[in-house]
Give the backbone structure.
Amino acid sequence: MKALAYEKAHPLKAFALELMDVDEPQMRENDLLIEVRAVGVNPGEAAIRQMRSAPPGGRVILGWEFAGVVVGTGPAAQGFSIGDRVMGTGDVMRDGCWAERLAVDYRVVARIPDQLSFADAASLPVGGVTAWEALFRDQSGLPAGVENVLVVGGAGGVGSMATQLLKSRTSARVISTASRSESREWCTAMGADLVIDHTKDVAGQLRAAGVDQIDLVFSAKGTADNIGWIAGVLRPFGHVATTDLTGATDIEPLIQKSVSLHTEMIFSRVITGHDVHRQGQILSELLDHVRPIVTTELHGLTVDAMREAHSLAESGRTIGKTVITA
Ligand SMILES: NC(=O)c1ccc[n+]([C@@H]2O[C@H](COP(=O)([O-])OP(=O)(O)OC[C@H]3O[C@@H](n4cnc5c(N)ncnc54)[C@H](OP(=O)(O)O)[C@@H]3O)[C@@H](O)[C@H]2O)c1
């Protein structure tokens, strides 16, 4: 089959993905074989492209957000049949979906309704599952006492889903951050009650809006840089849920507020084997709470389309989600 793949980690300016012939995916017993019809492209994949190289003689296939059709089932895969339209993420330790076909554990896959296009479906899984798990953890809702939530990076793929989920599943007041008129408008369209600018005095903007303190900060972007003012606006014993924590983030400013820190890694379940089914359930439940967030739709799984998608992902300016249809 054909796949967009590369050998050595590389920067955007030396973009080296090529459309190449590769072996068919190796099926495991829990797997579905999916014919890929659309993929979402994320900053995380662009980051992995810069860091991950293939072993000698090998190649890397990225891509962990897809919509497609089931064309094969492993002996232990349950609940899906050939011909089902599905969406999902996958396993970052295995080959991804920027290929004609993908083998993926059935427990991290969900059926998509007939009325949802493949492109729209491919915009949901990564932001949706990431935001859900970071906000709600293993619980049915937000931690007790959370009334004011600040979504930092509200217009991005993850922030868009966080805002929609909060508005649909909770009674919290949702304040999102955006620094441009178009990203502000998008946050409002996602349902934010208030939009403020993360490049300006956040505490001052909150005070001016009559918000004394934030109970939970959902920090999707820029956490390492923003941690000082995040700590400043949080109430003591509040919560920080973050999706972009790196080892280099200094969490010292949070200490005097005694906060709970929610870290999130979308592949935790599939990598560790912990409650893997729950990811498929979350994906299914998402459909009741969010609408698709495609803002750029590129056509054809080609080098040019993927280069453009990586360029958008690395800009840090994405609104919603970039999707490529096969
Ligand atoms: N943990 C996981 O499992 C997981 C899963 C998915 C994603 N992620 C990570 O989560 C992060 C967010 O992903 P995404 O897809 O939402 O990203 P994205 O779509 O690229 O986010 C873009 C948005 O971020 C805003 N932004 C840029 N710099 C910012 C800053 N310094 N402070 C606040 N907002 C800023 C921009 O708003 P303005 O243009 O208005 O400034 C833009 O709309 C990425 O780092 C990604 O790698 C992690």
Remarks:
- The longest helix spans residues 157-169.
- The pocket of NAP is lined by residues 42-44, 126, 130, 152-153, 155-159, 177-180, 183, 198, 220-222, 225-226, 243-244, 264-266, 316-319 (CB under 6 Å).
- Residues 2-124+292-325 form a domain with the Quinone Oxidoreductase; Chain A, domain 1 fold (CATH 3.90.180.10).
